[in-house]
Predict the structure.
Amino acid sequence: MTKGRTRAKKVSCEDCFFRKNMLCALSCEQPCATFRPDSPEGLRPPQQMRFHFRQERRTQVSWALPTAQEQAALHA
Ligand code: SF4
């Protein structure tokens, strides 16, 4: 069982893609909200959410009308 969120690594402007590629126009003391980690692959988009499709299918819907056989048995 996991114990909540792991602590995020402290980042600095020295690790930022924009600073390393001289694309940062800010003169902040601390990393800003646009911080993006520098990696050998370059600037990577954030990971997208994944779709998970249900494997099971409903075989009977709750609003279905009874079949003729069920109606006949009900009123027999
Ligand atoms: S973009 Fe923000 S986090 Fe990156 S180097 Fe510039 S100020 Fe720092």
